[in-house]
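A quick aside before the break. I want you to see a complete sequence-to-structure record at least once, exactly as it would be stored in a machine-readable document. Don't worry about memorizing anything.
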Amino acid sequence: MKQVCIIALGCPKNIVDSEHISADFAATGRYQLTNDQTVADVVLVNTCAFIGSAREEAVEAILGAAETMKPDAKLVVTGCMAQMYGEIIREEMPRVDFVFGTGTYDDIIATVEGAESEIYEDNHVHVGDIFDKNGPVDLNDLSYLDRENMHSTGTYAFLKIADGCNNACSYCVIPHLKGRYRSRKYESVIAEAKRLAEKGVKEIILVAQDTTRYGLDLYKKRRLPELMDEISNIDGIEWIRVLYTYPEQIDDNLIAVLKNNPKVCKYLDIPIQHINDRILKDMRRRGDSALIKSVLTKLRQEVPGIVLRTSLIAGYPTETEEEIQELISFVSEGWFDRLGAFAYSREDGTPAGEMKGQIPSRTKEARARRIMRAQHKVACAKNKARVGKTYRTITEGVADDGIFYYGRTYGEAPDIDDYVYFVSPEPLEMGDMVDVYIQTYRDYELIGEVR
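That is the input. The structure line, written in tokens, reads:
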């Protein structure tokens, strides 16, 4: 058995793609998965290219693999950075054997095993046509569901319900990397959710570039609320969480599911990027500050206890001190429980990248830190308000000190938010659902005990 090490970088959608690739390798019967790149026969780096820091992380991972892997092992680079910079990767990193874009995952194994002459040109770069009207890959091919290594057997799994993006935000390269928005068939998503439940997964996390748009292309209507209700009927599924929702797409049907379905986490990720109307217009975002505040207010009123998360961009071209201060003031008002702020990243091929009035890196970074300082005060106040309350918590593991367990309530998304730490009078297993009484907090972390 040969060994393959897959390094997944970037967002949860990339994690899903990496799990599919892992399943493809395992299904051959000729490969075992390993986390040790020094012993692997194939090292595959699935890259992100959303912002500059993601590309830097990808380059470090590729170079690190090149230095530590066996001399005769094959190094494969795929994902978004491969789609955008495939030729450059091959030119600048000669140790890389093969480069695959986001639409050519199905060709990886045949290529690695020696059929590359049928697929590749001389430089071993294959990115595919992501703008094919049907999409570069079949999102509804369910054959991978029978592969034992499709998903990890942890407490949660990301389930991708669509790929691509039709939004034309001025700062974003995703449409150039993933193609147009394509919803998976409703039945395909349900089938995968059932299989995940059979594998012991308790929390389904729905992801896409824009989950709220799900169904509009296939069914001419939004079907996310209906999808969440149907998944909640699957035996074994305890929680359903949804990420990457757009404020202008949040309607009464979605709010009703958040409010009334006990298995749907009262948690919503709404990346708004900014609050100043001029900046939002320049970003080509749909909706203005009034719409954003209206949606947030309605969510708070209709769904008591809802936890809201967002991401913000600091230092967008031409952003003035008054406009960043407006954003900081908005953050200080406590509209969001969770928040990430990022310095604007100038991307090739985007309208914002060509704009005059680019802001110096030092200024952008300083503005992002100012946002996070404001949010730190908000987060501490919100955590203080949770002290003295009891929350259903899913156990994720044991802390390094061997005393505390760690886990998540409905208000913490995995890989994004901080854990809840707690002690228990009885031994617990990963995946156990327990009631945790919150005793105190430490910055972003909650601390309690099982009761």
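Two observations worth writing down. The first helix runs from residue 12 to 27. The radius of gyration is 22 Å. We'll return to this after the break.
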